Amino acid sequence: MKIKARYCGLVILVLLTSAQILFAQQTNEQQATITVNLKTETGEMKPIWAWFGHDEPNYTYMKDGRKLLTELAALSPVPVHMRVHNLLNTGNGEAALKWGSTNAYTEDANGKPVYNWHLVDSIFDTYIKRGMKPYAQIGFMPEALSTHPEPYRHYWQPGHDYNEVYTGWAYPPKDYDKWEELIYQWVKHEVAKYGKKEVESWYWEVWNEPNIGYWKGTMPEFFKLYDYAAHGVKRALPTAKVGGPEVAGGSSPGGMKFLRAFIEHCITGTNYVTGKTGSPLDVISFHAKGQPAVVDGHVRMNMAPQLRDIREGFKIVASHPQTKNIPIVIGESDPEGCAACGMATNPSNAYRNGTMYSSYTAASFAREYLLADSLQVNFMGAVSWSFEFEDQPWFYGFRDLATNGVDKPVLNVFRMLGMMRGKRVEVKANQMFSVESVADSSVRGARTDIGGLAAKDKNTATLMVWNYHDDDLQNAGKPVQINIKDLPGKTVTLTQYRIDQQYSNSYEVWKKMGSPQKPTTAQIQELEKAGQLQMVGKPEKLTVKSGRVQTEITLPRQAVALLKLNW
User: Fold this and answer.
1) Where in the chain are the domains?
2) Which of 41, 235, 386, 557 lies at a 20 to 30 A Cα distance from 346?
3) What residues form the membrane-spanning segments (predicted)?
């Protein structure tokens, strides 16, 4: 009887497994459909994506830096926020990978502070002239204030030990009063230069990733650093907004533990400056990163750690009644951690030049909106830690938006997002992975993630669609049926934009040129044109029947499309 029972159990198991395989095959083969319900609003189409950052502040005012900032300002319906490291570093302003300096603070022979705002002004002027906003990072430690000033400047290069980066600038101040006075003088200078109203519209944040090598002090010492910095900000401008702690995410040592402790210090801790309870906290920030790897000769992305970090950070903020409504900025939100590590030294970063980076960006931002909705937090922005690297090899595989002044495919995702206005509306997609599924195991297996993010404004509707998979492989994709419901009027004009191997892709054009490292003037012009967001065909008029329009697109794997309807 036991043998028969085991045999029957085995048969049932085999039948169940076969049914599951058959179901998976049927699911994979069925028509992909996306339905947009324009009447069902889900939230504001808040431009959480209009935040960017980078390590090298001196690139800001260089030729390609200015060009890219002009493009970022132009594509966004709101002021773009810029976050950069090294704004208080001592040095001559020379730009290098993961390094920058402004020489804002030095001391004379008698130890008296000397303030020099020339290079800081050059950086902030570049933003303000374009209608952008500094997400002003208070860091790092000037050489004259560091408790361990030597060695001070690093000369790190890709492929070297990352710990070489953490030199004298990462240490606590030898005099916290001088540190507070430096921040006071800085904010006071900005108010005098740009006006109280302008500086009130900025956010100031203290330091970067204090739970790892960027901070060579203890956790209590960081809280002390924060209290003195925040005190300096508020002393110069009581209505200024300041926050932190910009911890590295949960996959880094103690990230979320540090975030919890920091919030508790700001709520109930003893302020190191005043001796009173609590510290100013106007914005809360933490970081979230994915983890790509090379598998079977190609890059395999992993969005799960990034989404888990975001979910956990949101939950921590929402768990305190004092902080649940405070604006949250994901201070770095990226597929992995090192922007300056090119694909030559880090093969897993080879996704950055082509359409994998753009499809990942579209699919991940959509989930960030959904996570914020589900946890009901005040999600203000997610910083893409990607800018440009001046005078570096063409398409070297840095995590950047442009190479030598030529836009990469990923920048066109932000151009698409910039066209999405008004209210977000309900999207139902039968082959879109749930947030929970992606946070658990990313997008693996036979099926790709075909999903959408939609918005409506007064006389327009927009739908971003992607065909994403963790494995950086290409294929022709599949047809996707698009259904738009609750449209007014009798006709709409449909315009489609695309990022794939053929459209909006300077990298593919560059490869077809033979991958030149010294392209001609004519080739550069061709690459610049290929780097812009491109339309598929021409706008077409569609008939609205009973408030509905149906169309079909074929979306290759790792492609992103934007459908814009006007009426």
Assistant:
1) 30-43+420-566, 46-391
2) 557
3) none
